[in-house]
TrEMBL record:
Residue ranges the record marks as coiled coil: 8-57
Recorded family membership: Belongs to the V-ATPase G subunit family.
Gene: Dper\GL11956
The protein's assembly and partners: V-ATPase is a heteromultimeric enzyme made up of two complexes: the ATP-hydrolytic V1 complex and the proton translocation V0 complex.
Alphabetical list of PANTHER family matching this protein: V-TYPE PROTON ATPASE SUBUNIT G, VACUOLAR ATP SYNTHASE SUBUNIT G
Protein name stated in the entry: V-type proton ATPase subunit G
Gene Ontology biological process: synaptic vesicle lumen acidification; terminal branching, open tracheal system
This protein's record includes keyword Transport: yes
Pfam families per record: V-ATPase_G
Keyword terms, alphabetized: Coiled coil, Hydrogen ion transport, Ion transport, Transport
Length: 117
């Protein structure tokens, strides 16, 4: 009987030791997964920063700086406004004269629907 109890004690001890090993293995696995996740996050962030830098270089190379684009648009707007001002100055007087001619030269006529009684 004592040998049976001793055998049971050995089995219980072995089971406890195996459970501890399994628990430790699970902990190691969780640590490895967390470490892999952290490394992947760092790698993704580095990749994103690299792509952002490359895009900004491409944008600066092909489109110029944003200030340069804004300055070009502003200059184009000024040129167009100056052209409009010149057009107004050159066409203003003839248009006024034409409108005045319509106002001054009124020829009274009887409307075609008017019937004399």
């Amino acid at each position: 009987m004592a040998s049976q109890t001793q055998g049971i004690q050995q089995l219980l001890a072995a089971e406890k030791k195996a459970a501890e090993k399994v628990a430790e293995a699970r902990k190691r696995k969780a640590r490895r997964l967390k470490q892999a996740k952290d490394e992947a996050t760092e790698e993704i962030e580095k990749f994103r920063q690299e792509r952002e830098r490359a895009f900004k270089e491409f944008e600066a190379k092909h489109m110029g700086s944003r200030e340069g684009v804004a300055a070009k648009i502003d200059a184009d707007t000024r040129v167009k406004l100056a052209d409009m001002e010149r057009a107004i100055v050159t066409r203003k007087e003839p248009v006024i004269q034409e409108i005045l001619q319509f106002v001054y030269n009124i020829s009274p006529e009887v409307h075609k629907n008017y019937t004399a009684k």
